[in-house]
């Protein structure tokens, strides 16, 4: 596996260093995959290893038995990637990096200022902030999201503790419904790719005939043939990717056990810290504000780690909050 071992055994082999634990948590090999080309050298004479970008790694999946579930590994990576960096205004707020715009899909930008009270801090769509007119100018205050989030997590924990079986059935039912929607959308896109591939086959046959009869010059024929061949290769790659995604969605199952274990962990007390937010939440999707019967409200969707969106009994499809 290419693991460096110390020259001599430490006095206390159980006193693991933070860096060691962090390296273990990031190892893709524990998913049962073999990962090659993680590093390279400038020349064969050099002893210095240079890390390649993960996009350049070559991964052979399912080559050995996994010791970590894929869902658990993904959750751990999300938590570790959510670590907040210090800034001139102090540490970033707990919700930083967690909010996404429902209209354009981009992250929402944290807005705060020197001397501002927490009640004034808010998020705004990053697309709108960078490109005027690129998205709607909606925003939402931190305290609103925090209040809504804390309330929903508490209700969720209570619901799980009171009836784990009912929670499990609820999540599996909702997960199946979401999976079916995703598969349907992916299959529609795959159908479009297949249609285009069929059309390219017809075009290529026509090009050969036109070239034989002299309707198209050899030079133009060659250029068009290369162009369509390139598009064909790209579409074939897309076909494999769509098929892989469809299989992944169909085979995936909600990680109910993870959410149940969290509920028991925080059964006694819940405070909205960055740690708890990232343990429970994958992302928070914010919609543009709307007016219902003269009251301004804003819809928010909470996507939980491992189980997706959880709609508790009696809850509307999308959470609402007053600004």
Q: Pick out the low-confidence regions.
A: none
Count of the separate structural domains: 3
Termini Cα gap: 53 Å
Proportion of beta-strand residues:
15-25%
Number of helices: 8
User: Order of helices and strands, N to C?
Assistant: HEEEEHEEEEEHEHHHHHEEEEE
Helix share bin: 40-55%
Radius of gyration: 26 Å
Major sheet characteristics:
6 strands, mixed
* Total number of strands: 15
Shape: globular
**Would you tell me the overall average pLDDT?**
82
User: From the helix content, strand content and strand pairing, which structural class follows?
Assistant: alpha+beta
Task: Quickly list its features.
single chain, alpha+beta, six-stranded mixed beta sheet, Helix Hairpins, 16% strand, 8 helices, 3 domains, three-stranded antiparallel beta sheet, 323 residues
Structure description:
The chain contains 8 helices and 15 strands. It is of the alpha+beta class. The protein folds into 3 domains: 30-62, no CATH class; 86-163 and 272-322, no CATH class; 168-256, Helix Hairpins, CATH 1.10.287. The strands form 5 sheets. Strands 7, 11, 12, 13, 14 and 15 form a 6-stranded mixed sheet that branches. The longest helix is centred in the middle third of the chain and has 49 residues, at 164-212. The radius of gyration is 26 Å and the shape is globular.
Explain the layout of strands and helices.
Elements: H1 18-25, E1 34-36, E2 39-40, E3 50-51, E4 58-60, H2 70-81, E5 86-87, E6 90-91, E7 99-101, E8 108-111, E9 122-125, H3 126-130, E10 139-141, H4 142-162, H5 164-212, H6 218-251, H7 256-265, H8 274-280, E11 281-286, E12 290-292, E13 295-304, E14 308-309, E15 319-322
């Amino acid at each position: 596996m290419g693991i460096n071992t110390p020259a001599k055994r430490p006095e206390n082999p159980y006193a693991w260093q933070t860096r060691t634990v962090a390296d273990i948590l990031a190892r893709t090999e524990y998913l049962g995959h073999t990962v090659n080309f993680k590093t390279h050298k400038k020349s064969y004479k050099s002893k210095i290893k240079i890390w390649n970008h993960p996009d350049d790694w070559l991964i052979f999946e399912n080559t050995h038995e996994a010791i970590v579930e894929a869902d658990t590994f993904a959750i751990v990576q999300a938590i570790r990637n959510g670590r907040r960096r210090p800034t001139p205004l102090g540490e970033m707020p707990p919700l930083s990096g967690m909010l996404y715009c429902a209209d354009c899909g981009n992250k929402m930008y944290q807005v705060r200022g020197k001397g501002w009270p927490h009640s004034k801090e808010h998020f705004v769509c990053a697309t709108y902030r960078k490109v005027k007119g690129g998205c709607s100018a909606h925003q939402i205050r931190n305290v609103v999201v925090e209040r809504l989030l804390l309330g929903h997590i508490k209700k969720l924990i209570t619901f799980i503790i009171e009836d784990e079986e009912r929670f499990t059935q609820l999540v599996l039912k909702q997960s199946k419904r979401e999976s079916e929607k995703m598969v349907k959308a992916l299959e529609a896109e795959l159908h479009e790719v297949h249609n285009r591939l069929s059309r390219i086959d017809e075009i290529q046959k026509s090009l050969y005939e036109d070239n034989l009869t002299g309707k198209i010059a050899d030079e133009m024929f060659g250029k068009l043939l290369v162009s369509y061949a390139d598009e064909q290769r790209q579409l074939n790659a897309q076909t494999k990717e769509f098929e892989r995604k469809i299989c992944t969605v169909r085979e995936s199952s909600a990680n109910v056990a993870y959410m149940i274990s969290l509920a028991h962990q925080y059964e006694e007390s819940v405070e909205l810290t960055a740690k708890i937010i990232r343990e429970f939440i994958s992302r928070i999707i914010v919609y543009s504000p709307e007016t219902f019967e003269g009251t301004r409200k804003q819809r928010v969707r909470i996507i939980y780690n491992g189980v997706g969106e959880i709609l508790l009994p009696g809850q509307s499809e999308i959470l609402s909050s007053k600004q």
